[in-house]
Specification:
Distance between the termini: 15 Å
Number of helices: 11
CATH superfamily of the largest domain: Medium-chain alcohol dehydrogenases, catalytic domain
CATH architecture of the largest domain: Alpha-Beta Complex
Helix content: 25-40%
Largest sheet: 7 strands, mixed
Number of domains: 2
Structural class: alpha/beta
Strand content: 25-35%
Shape: globular
Length: 346
Amino acid sequence: MKAFPLTGLRRMELRDVPRPEVRRDTDVLVKMGAVGVCGSDVHYYETGRIGSQVVQYPFTVGHECAGVVAEVGKGVKRLKAGDRVAIEPAMSCHECDQCRAGREHTCRKLRFLGCPGQAEGCLSEYIVMPQECCFPIPESMSLAEAALSEPLSIGVYAVKLAGAVKGARIAILGTGPIGLSVLLAACHQRAGAVYATDKIDARLAVARTLGAVWTGNPSAGDVVAGIAAREPLGLDMVFECCGEQDAVDQALRLVRPGGKVMMIGIPRVDAIAFSMDLMRRREICVQNVRRQVHCVQAALDMIASRAVNASPMITHRFPFERTVEAFDLVAGYRDGVVKAMIEWGT
């Protein structure tokens, strides 16, 4: 089969590799139909690492995906060849203390698609996943929409973890796919008002389409002052979705005393600073968000029922053979890209 592994910094090559096989009774062989290019994939493409996770070349990234079942193990009962599925990229052990506590996303032995040292990614024609990671989708849902369930599930989880969102005044700093997923989930939970910021005006336009009541570009003006003029008492919660020091500083200034800052963005640096003066005096809670847990089906249900419209996030589509072009586009933030989707002719 064909795969598109990383072979060096900013280098990918289309290669022939062995097709994975169904070996366990619970294995499912899936023919890929759509793969979304995630910011973390681009981190590995550009720098070869995220923190302590370092790529050993060649290595295939990609984890936002959906496809068609090609073969199942003899123990698989709820899926059959021909079924269309969305993929949960996290494979947990279900035995460690974290799994027993319902925290499969922080499993001690977690294997995650496209994560160095854990599992090869899905930028290939076929992958094998455990049946529990394969979620059937209705015929009304495209494979590209199904692939969006991965980032959307992170937004659903972040909003769930934040607490009382209904009626809350919130800000989302960074309106890439994760920020927009938080926006969709927050609006679905009837947030009182959602403010959004980004340095790319095209992304702000999408945010307005999806429900933001106000948007601002921090490169063009003081977004803290702009939001404070409308919310002088501060915001109930702020979702930091871009991993930038400036956004963290803005979040601490925007949130009200007793409010919460949700940290979702992945920084490109090893350390981020927080103003302890602001945090202490306002008793601000800072909550890290690690991917998602138990939210894939909820995200799929939201898409299937049309309770949310995630499709505007897909701004560019590429055939598999043009994967490098897709990565370069996303890495350069060119042409107003939000989500580049790689698709096969299934």
